Amino acid sequence: MKRLKGRTALVTGAASGIGRATARRLAAEGAIVIISDIQQEAGEAAAAELREEGSTATFVQHDVTSEDGWKQVIDQVVAEHGKLDILVNNAGIGDSLPIEETDMKTWDRTIAVTQTSVFLGMKAAAEALKASGNGSVINISSIFGTSGGFGVSPAYHAAKGAVRLLTKTTALHWATEGVRVNSVHPGFIDTPILDQNRDEASMGAMVGTTPMGRLGKPEEIAAAIAFLASDDAAFVTGSELYVDGGFTAR
Predict the structure, then answer these.
(1) 3-state class of 85 per DSSP?
(2) How far apart are CA 249 and CA 153, in angstroms?
(3) With left for phi above 0 and alpha for psi between -120 and 50, is residue 13 left, alpha or beta?
(4) What is d(CA 161, CA 86) in angstroms, rounded to the nearest whole number?
(5) How far apart are CA 208 and CA 204, in angstroms?
(6) pLDDT at 198
(7) Which of 189, 193, 172 is nearest to 181 (CA)?
(8) 70, 144, 156, 227: which one is catalytic?
(9) Closest C-alpha among 215, 195, 196 to residue 205
(10) How far apart are the C-alpha atoms of 239 and 233, rounded to whole Å?
(11) 242 catalytically annotated
């Protein structure tokens, strides 16, 4: 079913993991997809793969922490495609240490990429999204935007918690402007970001605290994002969709 036929979608951090799976799912639903990422080679490959599958997809190298960078990307999308209907703020990075060991460089970088980028993206895209008539923003938060998790990664938790509430306040502001804004909260998902935590103890902690007893798949997050982007979610705004195998139900 082509629920997004004729719509234009920008997905940040889409060279790999959840972002790449999201780009593929939105394309399969009929959307024109712009893949945004700082990683040029991987991003180009992701876009080329979608084109080989018959979809319309392009790549743009994009530093999501740059206000000027956001303006350039949005201007380019509108110039090339005439509009922007869907914005998926997926780009993000994490930290791993307890608060006593977290330095300012780590804190500032994590907040910039994971939190500030969402603010900059919605601000830059506001005019285009309002003009769309089908505007939908999906901000990728996390179970750690709601839960304290394992008591470490303070910058990541702070950033994802901020994304959760920034989503709600913007949803209220745009509620009568034709733009819906929702957040998706993945649990532990099997993506390359977990490669540094595939030791037995870490994997055991993640799987062991997930009631369904397994890691999630990027495609399962992408399916939730596609729903929120589509008219099937026409009366959904300011919501939190948890795709976490039951983690937050405990």
Answers:
(1) coil
(2) 21
(3) left
(4) 22
(5) 5
(6) 75
(7) 172
(8) 156
(9) 215
(10) 11
(11) no
- Residue 5: which pLDDT band, with cuts at 50, 70 and 90? very high
Alpha-carbon distance 63 to 38, whole Å? 6
**Edge-to-edge strand order for the sheet containing 57-61?**
57-61, 32-37, 8-12, 86-89, 135-140, 179-186, 240-243
Please identify which residue in the block is written with the tokens 């982007």: 229
> CA nearest 216: which of 195, 241, 198, 190?
190
Residue reference for tokens 């900059």 = 120
Q: Which tokens hold the place of 100? A: 């006593």
One-letter amino acid of 156:
Y
Q: 123 φ, ψ to 5°?
A: -65, -45
* DSSP designation for 185: E
Tens-place pLDDT, residues 196-222: 677 778 888 899 999 999 999 999 999
